[in-house]
Amino acid sequence: MPFVSLPELKAQLNLDHDLDDAILSHQIDAAEAYAASFIGAALPDPLPATIRQAVLMLAAFWYETREAAQSGTSPASVPFGVHDLLQAHRAWVV
């Protein structure tokens, strides 16, 4: 079960329809997997607000930017701020 709910992501995106629920659920799963990979550990339960915000930002970004590249913009695979939000939770291995 995802840590971030579909209604939370729809609120983040200001969506009021159910047409894209399947892709939104996929974006949540992918963003949570990305966050866990970046911090190097399973996501904690309860989810800290900073990780929740990073997942919401990333899922919303991937929903709105569905292509690998866009003309006329700077390329970015992860929106500005996501790594900053996750950095404090990173499991450093020496």
Automatic annotation (TrEMBL):
Pfam families reported for this sequence: Phage_connect_1
Listed name of the protein: Phage gp6-like head-tail connector protein
Lineage: Bacteria, Pseudomonadati, Pseudomonadota, Alphaproteobacteria, Rhodobacterales
